[in-house]
């Protein structure tokens, strides 16, 4: 049982997730350890174990926070518009994901390991945020594409969400990867998160 007020517990969890987020900008998931995170938080490393038992649980919380932020973007799109054409939907969703590079980076990771090494109650909380994003995307299609049936909207969600797993590795390419592609003689068109997302949605929604 974690001791402290709900506010303090939430603050401590946020500080741990913030430390993970800071390190993730320069370190890989594989290389990062709880010891690394413990050197960034403003309290002793053993305190981390009161809130998270594994590194994977911290990353899962970071992943959940990123879905929550994207949900806010999707809900704002629905609040701010009464009607949208397909190209406008594609533009707004592509713009929202352009701001969520970290979400796409986390999605492209091995989520099986992350989920397998997290307690079920934390996984349930994460799945709620993930599920909310699917529901928001479906609600957006129902609102702005009235001619689309529920089954068609659901099919589109099941195409687009798996597609999101590949957006980050196709749009964020390192110098090393570019050199390897050139040396291998592989033709490759470098595109932004916006371009890849927009083109996919235009293909799914039609112009």
Helix-strand topology string? HHHHHHHHHHHH
Whole-number tally of structural domains: 2
The biggest sheet amounts to: none
Quote the distance from N terminus to C terminus: 54 Å
CATH architecture label of the largest domain:
Orthogonal Bundle
Descriptive account of the structure:
The chain has 2 domains: 1-52, Arc Repressor Mutant, subunit A; 64-205, Orthogonal Bundle (Tetracycline Repressor, domain 2), CATH 1.10.357. It has 12 helices and no strands. The protein has helices spanning 6-24, 34-38, 45-48, 55-80, 86-98, 101-107, 111-116, 120-144, 150-164, 167-171, 175-184, 193-205. It starts with 5 loop residues before the first helix and ends with a helix. It has 207 residues and is mostly helical.
Short description:
With 207 residues, this protein is an all-alpha fold. The protein has twelve helices and no strands. The protein is 71% helix and 0% strand.
List its traits.
single chain, 207 residues, mainly alpha, Arc Repressor Mutant, subunit A, Tetracycline Repressor, domain 2, 0% strand, globular
List the helices and strands and how they pair.
Elements: H1 6-24, H2 34-38, H3 45-48, H4 55-80, H5 86-98, H6 101-107, H7 111-116, H8 120-144, H9 150-164, H10 167-171, H11 175-184, H12 193-205
Helix pairs in contact: 1-4, 4-5, 4-6, 4-8, 5-12, 8-9
């Amino acid at each position: 049982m974690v001791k402290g007020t709900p506010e303090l517990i939430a603050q401590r969890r946020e500080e741990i997730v913030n430390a993970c987020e800071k390190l993730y900008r320069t370190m890989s998931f594989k290389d990062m350890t709880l010891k690394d995170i413990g050197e960034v938080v403003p309290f002793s490393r053993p305190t981390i174990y009161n809130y998270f038992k594994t590194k994977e649980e911290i990353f899962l919380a970071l992943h959940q926070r990123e879905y929550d932020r994207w949900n806010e973007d999707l809900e704002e799109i629905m609040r701010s518009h009464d009607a949208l054409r397909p190209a406008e939907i594609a533009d707004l969703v592509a713009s929202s994901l352009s701001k969520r590079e970290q979400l796409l980076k986390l999605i492209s990771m091995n989520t099986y390991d992350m989920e397998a090494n997290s307690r079920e109650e934390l996984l349930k909380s994460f799945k709620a945020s993930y599920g909310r994003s699917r529901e928001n995307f479906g609600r957006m299609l129902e609102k702005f594409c009235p001619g689309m049936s529920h089954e068609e909207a659901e099919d589109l969600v099941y195409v687009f969400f798996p597609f999101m797993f590949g957006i980050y590795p196709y749009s964020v390419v390192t110098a090393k990867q570019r050199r390897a592609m050139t040396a291998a003689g592989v033709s490759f068109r470098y595109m932004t998160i916006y371009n890849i997302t927009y083109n996919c949605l235009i293909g799914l929604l039609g112009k």
